[in-house]
Specification:
Helix content of chain B: over 70%
Structural class of chain B: mainly alpha
Distance between the termini of chain A: 137 Å
Helix content of chain A: 25-40%
Radius of gyration of chain A: 35 Å
Strand content of chain A: 15-25%
Oligomer: heterodimer
Strand order of the largest sheet of chain A: 2-1-3-10-4-11
Shape of chain A: elongated
Number of strands of chain B: 0
Largest sheet of chain B: none
Shape of chain B: elongated
Order of helices and strands of chain A: HHEHEHEHEEEHHEHEEEHEHH
Number of helices of chain A: 11
Largest interface: A-B, 58 and 120 residues
Number of strands of chain A: 11
Number of helices of chain B: 44
Chain lengths: 309, 830
């Protein structure tokens, strides 16, 4: 082989080694979008959001990578896709993410308070024994709302008559309006809640997190590129006002709320300190057998005279 | 006799002279015979006598005729017999009565030149010279004859002459002689009274003037002199009456007002003197003495600002009066202006550097400004000039007292008393200086105690000095002569100023005596008295207080007091005695505290007792050892080790038998207590099983042991077992609300929500023997929550938050969240 020929071969090998890994392995990434509590006015708006986000991420990842959006309307659907490993990136609700072990790349800002809605003039007391609707998102959405919006002051199974699961918050709120349910848990400020009253509210609802169900398919550089895209405005909408890397506290709070029972059921009575505080050494009446010696005045007692002047 | 001899010689000489004259006259051939002379003399004398009678009757014209007649006759004799002495004397008399003194002098001088020892002639010449205005020539002649009988007129003239010369001592005898010879001449008594006044024979002056005023009651001069004599004699009341009467009679004589003011000052009635002096000064604006006295009076009255102004006013007319500076110095001292006091005293001294009173005051001011050495120098100087003034010696004694030269001070005070037994401060100083010496001797190592006692005895015997008496009583006490001490302080009067100072010390001694005599009520009273009055006898007082406290069962106080007494005691024997007393007291304290269950307190007390326990009886030693070991169980750092030690001790030989029964029995309770402290409740219960008696503390230990076991079961989740134990405790003592409460907690945790709630509700309703713990309401809230009765839970949490001892913050978030979620309010609404 001629020298010039050999040099060309080496340059070509080096060039091949310097190419990004993504370019070689991730030609297509699927972005699953399941945000049933996000504040989209309609399913179409939600789908448009997913498409727009996929496009922005594709742009961020370079020409060799294509991100394809796949919007889900129901929890069962997304779970099925996840089980089939057909989702590489998942933009979903914190309540769902809290029940999974996926890597969390970023969390959305602007998580609204958790609220209990009902018809105007209704109170929590009025809802005792009544039907409550809630979006089916995570493993125990009611417990989350009870611990968040109602501060754990209610044992839901005993207090509410029935829990009605809906595909998303809009549907849950619509059930109240349709008198199918008497109240609904939903994030505060949901557009579908117009016409209903907030009966109770507290805490925060993690309406969006971006996870990597198939983290092995997303390189570090791709993650960086995705985060960069999110921070420059991609993924805004539906009540998501911004993005920040990592889990954030909202997700862990939500996980805790879902895992613990309401405090009306867990608070235990407390003991008081008992007889220990009155404990004293046993009295014993002992007397000396001797006696005080007779008083003696001591020596050199003197009174110094004074002289008036 | 000598006078008679002289007269006889004179007579013989005169007779011989007359004889010679006659011989000479006869030899002149014109001399009258002796008979004729006698006849003519009788004739002339008769005319002279007649003239005197007429003059006495005021018939001057007839008298004048008779005088001429006598003169002619006498001259007829002298013409023929020029040396006829009797004729000359008769003619001299006639000339005197005719007031022809110059003629009389011319007549008599030749005779006197010849017969200077002839008192008749000297008398006549003297009278003429005196009346003729030659008093200085007349006086020696009159002095020569004044003592002769019948020459009272010479005495009178001499009395008048000396009066005018203010030669009071010279004139007094003449005045007295005259008034003796002429008692009917009461006019002369005014003169005599003045003589007496001026020669300081005030009482005689008053007598003479009283006699004079009996005949001349309106004579103001005599009245003034009499009042002055009364004033001078110190009869101020009578002088006051006299001046007051005169002022009423002659209100314009302002001098009388001044005199009355002087009386008031002497009567120590300055308040009355000041207005009088004010009246006097209205018309006598320059009377500097009156101004000074007014200022003095104001000073005496303590009206210092007015006195200051008055002295300054007096200074305007008497700038160099040292007494004014003295007054200003006194005011300054009274007002605490020591600088001003010294400065003014110094000015007074500068103006009158050798006045003993002023220099003495300067010394006093120096002493009062802490310059005792300088004060002593001043007083020494003053005494050099006026050693007779007792007050100066008192001041000197005070200087020496300040310098703590007590022996010298005694000398000074003694000297003062020698000069004036009543001098102010003398007796107090003499007594105090002796007592001070005695005290110094008593405190000095190897001091002469007999001498100290003698000094004190002298101070008591001579002046009943309270401090000396108290010190003698202390000597008696120290000698264990309680009765003598009591007798001595019983005689210590506390009414006087000196006695009042000793009141606290006397009370301290009486209190101790009462303790020794077992009269604790008296001792308590006297101790309070000593406390309130204050006493120098701190150690004695502390000892008495200790015994009183012990008698009252307050061994804590007694022990503290014994500690204090011992701390301040230097005498080894007394310290040893106090050590015994304090050890016993602390032993008592320790046992009492042990009896009350005050472990730490008992331990501290017994530790103090242990230090001196060598002299304890065997039984006391046993008690102390038991108590100390038992306290280790109560408060030691390793309760198990201490408990084992106690157990071992009680098994020892000493504690067998009846003597150790109580300790053995109670010891088991202590052992139980120790095991409990060491968190071995099972062993505690085992020890208690050996205790036959019971008392609240033992019950409490058993209770605590069982409670500990219940808590352990609870912590290990054996709720039913815990509930059973607490229930038993609760059943055995209805007042044990904590066990009732905790039994409910364990019941709840065992799953019996209703059973627990019932117990808590019963507690909350007060159906038990004690006040329910606040936690009851919290737990009722928890139970209500568990049942789903959130409103009731809310109400219970509210009630819990209001309970005393509740942890309000604990439920505040619950209350707030329930209120937020359900809309509950405190008023019960939603």
């Amino acid at each position: 082989m001629r020298l010039e020929h050999r040099i060309l071969v080496v340059v070509a090998l080096l060039a091949a080694l310097s190419l990004p890994a993504t370019a070689a392995s991730a030609e297509n990434l699927t972005l699953g979008v399941f945000v049933p509590q996000a504040q989209f006015s309609s399913n179409a708006a939600r789908s448009a959001y997913a498409e727009r986000l996929a496009t922005r991420l594709s742009d961020a990842l370079g020409p060799e990578t294509t991100v394809t959006a796949r919007a889900f309307a129901r929890r069962a659907d997304v779970l099925a896709f996840l089980r089939a490993k057909k989702v590489d990136l998942l933009l979903t609700d914190g309540l769902l993410a809290a029940g999974r072990k996926d890597t969390v790349l970023a969390h959305g800002l602007g998580g609204p308070a958790a609220a209990l809605y009902a018809s105007s003039g209704t109170s929590v007391v009025d809802l005792k024994g009544k039907t409550i609707a809630v979006a089916e998102v995570g493993s125990n959405d009611v417990r989350f709302y009870v611990n968040a919006a109602l501060s754990g002051e209610v044992a839901p199974k005993r207090y509410f008559g029935k829990i009605r699961l809906s595909k998303d918050s809009a549907a849950a709120l619509a059930a109240v309006k349709a008198n199918v349910a008497d109240g609904a848990f939903a994030p505060l400020g949901h557009p579908a809640a117009i016409g209903l009253s907030v009966v109770a509210k507290a805490g925060a609802t993690p309406i969006a997190v971006l996870t990597l169900p198939r983290a092995e398919r997303v390189s570090e550089s791709a993650r960086t590129a995705i985060l960069g895209a999110l921070s420059t405005g991609a993924g805004l909408g539906g009540g998501i006002t911004g993005w920040r890397s990592g889990k954030g506290t909202g997700l862990s709070d939500a996980a805790a709320s879902m895992s613990r029972r309401p405090r009306v059921l867990t608070t235990e009575p407390e003991l008081v300190r008992s007889a220990q505080k009155r404990l004293a050494a046993p009295p014993i009446r002992l007397r000396p057998t001797g006696a005080l010696p007779a008083a003696k005045p001591g020596q050199q007692n003197v009174v110094r005279p004074t002289l008036d002047d | 006799m000598r006078m008679l001899g002289l007269r006889l010689v004179l007579f013989v000489t005169l007779t011989m002279a007359v004889a010679a004259t006659a011989t000479t006259s006869a030899s002149a051939a014109s001399a009258l015979s002796q008979r004729e002379v006698q006849r003519l003399l009788q004739e002339a004398d008769g005319a002279l006598s007649s003239a005197r009678t007429l003059l006495a009757r005021g018939e001057k014209r007839q008298a004048s005729g008779r005088l001429r007649e006598a003169e002619t006759t006498y001259r007829s004799i002298l013409t023929r017999n020029p040396e006829q002495r009797l004729a000359a004397l008769g003619l001299s008399n006639a000339l005197f009565l005719s007031r022809r003194y110059e003629d009389g002098v011319k007549l008599m001088r030749p005779f006197y030149d010849r017969l200077q020892d002839d008192n008749d002639i000297a008398h006549q010449l003297g009278m003429h010279l005196y009346r003729g205005g030659e008093q200085s020539l007349a006086v020696p002649l009159l002095e020569q004859v004044a003592e002769d009988d019948g020459r009272f007129d010479a005495s009178w003239l001499l009395a008048v002459y000396h009066y005018r010369q203010a030669a009071w001592a010279k004139g007094l005898a003449h005045a007295e002689r005259y008034t003796t010879v002429r008692p009917e001449d009461t006019d002369a008594l005014a003169l005599l009274g003045t003589y007496y006044l001026k020669t300081k024979r005030y009482d005689d002056a008053v007598v003479a003037l009283d006699r004079y005023l009996a005949d001349h009651p309106e004579n103001m001069a005599a009245r003034v002199n009499r009042a002055n004599a009364l004033f001078r004699s110190g009869n101020y009341d009578a002088a006051s009456d006299a001046y007051e009467t005169m002022i009423a009679d002659a209100p314009k004589r302002t001098r009388l007002i001044y005199n009355l003011a002087s009386v008031r000052i002497k009567q120590d009635r300055c308040a009355d003197a000041v207005p009088l002096l004010d009246r006097f000064l209205v018309t006598n604006t320059d009377a500097s003495t009156a101004k000074y006295f007014r200022a003095e009076c104001l000073l005496k009255l303590g009206r210092f600002a007015e006195a200051q102004a008055a002295f300054e006013t007096a200074q305007e007319t008497s700038r160099s009066n040292p007494w004014i500076f003295l007054g200003l110095s006194r005011i300054a001292l009274e007002q605490g202006d020591t600088e001003g006091a010294v400065s003014n005293a110094k000015k007074a001294v500068d103006l009158s550097p050798k006045d003993w009173e002023i220099v003495g005051w300067h010394g006093t001011v120096l002493r009062k400004t802490d310059q005792a050495e300088a004060a002593l120098a001043q007083h020494d100087a003053a005494i050099g000039w006026a050693p007779e003034h007792a007050a100066l010696h008192v001041e000197r004694g005070r200087d020496l007292w300040i310098l703590q030269r007590f022996a010298d001070a005694q000398g000074a005070f003694d000297q003062a008393l020698t000069l004036d037994p009543e001098v102010a401060g003398g007796a107090a100083g003499a007594a105090a200086s002796r007592t001070a010496q005695a005290v110094a001797l008593r405190l000095a190592e190897g001091g002469d105690q007999d001498r100290a006692k003698a000094l004190l005895k002298e101070a008591v015997d001579r002046w009943n000095d309270p401090a000396a008496r108290v010190n003698l009583a202390l000597i008696a006490l120290e000698g264990d002569d309680i009765d003598a001490a009591n007798a001595l302080v019983s005689g210590a009067g506390t009414d006087s100023a000196g006695g009042a100072k000793m009141a606290g010390d006397v009370a301290a001694i009486r209190a101790f005596v009462a303790v020794r005599n077992g009269r604790m009520d008296v001792a308590a009273k006297q101790t309070r008295q000593a406390q309130s009055k204050g006493t120098q006898l701190g150690r004695l007082h502390a000892i008495t207080q200790a015994y009183l406290a012990a008698d009252g069962g307050n061994w804590d106080k007694a022990a503290e007091a014994f500690d204090r007494a011992k701390k301040s005691e230097a005498d080894p024997e007394t310290r040893s005695h106090l050590e015994q007393a304090r050890t016993f007291a602390w032993f008592q304290v320790g046992l009492e505290r042990l009896g009350r269950g005050d472990g730490p307190g008992s331990k501290a007390a017994l530790a103090r007792a242990s230090a001196g326990a060598a002299g304890f009886t065997r039984a006391d030693k046993m008690t102390l050892r038991f108590a100390t070991t038992a306290l280790g169980v109560v408060a030691g750092k390793d309760p198990i080790a201490e408990t084992v030690a106690l157990s071992r001790l009680l098994r020892g030989r000493d504690y067998r038998g009846a003597a150790g029964r109580t300790m053995r029995e109670t010891g088991q309770a202590y052992i139980a207590y120790g095991y409990l402290r060491g968190e071995r409740p099972e062993d505690a219960l085992k020890a208690l099983s050996r205790v036959k008696t019971t008392n609240p503390a033992i019950t409490a230990i058993r209770h605590a042991a069982e409670d500990t076991l219940a808590k352990r079961a609870f912590d290990k989740g054996r709720y039913a077992e815990a509930a059973k134990t607490w229930s038993r405790l609760s059943d055995s003592d209805p007042a044990d609300v904590e066990s009732t409460h905790n039994a409910a907690v364990a019941t709840f945790m065992a799953g019996d929500l209703d059973g627990a709630s019932k117990r808590w509700q019963s507690l909350a309703a007060g159906n038990t023997g004690g006040t329910a713990p606040a936690m009851t309401w919290y737990n009722l809230g928890v139970a209500a929550d568990r049942r789903g009765d959130y409103k009731q839970a809310y109400d219970f949490f509210q009630r819990y938050a209001r309970k005393p001892g509740a942890d309000a913050e604990k439920v505040q978030t619950r209350i707030q969240s329930k209120s937020r979620v359900f809309g509950y309010t405190k008023d019960g609404g939603t």
